[in-house]
Design a protein that fits this description.
The chain is built from two helices and two strands. With about 90 residues, it is an alpha+beta fold. Strands 1-2 form a two-stranded parallel ribbon. The longest helix has 10 residues. The model has no long low-confidence stretch (mean pLDDT about 90).
């Protein structure tokens, strides 16, 4: 993300956001892998943030990948986000 500043991203306010953020990522996600999530998290300098890594097998899944979190077949994962939102709103 930072490498796009001044190029693709000419103006941003990421460093002004103060709301808490929870970063969820699946360990089998090749796009939002742990390193990329930490990089993205680092630009929100005024936000308290937590990172949660989802290991598919721990939830009884063979995969979660980048988008399957949102699938109704993975709805047992949704309380992770919903409960966090309820406690941080």
């Amino acid at each position: 993300v930072k490498t796009a500043f001044g190029k693709e991203i000419t103006k941003h306010l990421y460093s002004e956001i103060t709301a808490p953020i929870m970063w969820l990522h699946a360990t089998d996600d090749n796009i939002a892998n742990h390193t990329n999530v930490l990089d993205m998290k680092s630009i929100f300098t005024k936000s308290e943030g937590t990172v949660k890594s989802l290991i598919p097998a721990e939830f009884g899944f063979t995969d979660i990948d980048h988008m399957k979190f949102f699938s109704s077949k993975r709805k047992s994962l949704w309380p992770l986000a919903l409960d966090w939102l309820k406690s941080n709103s």
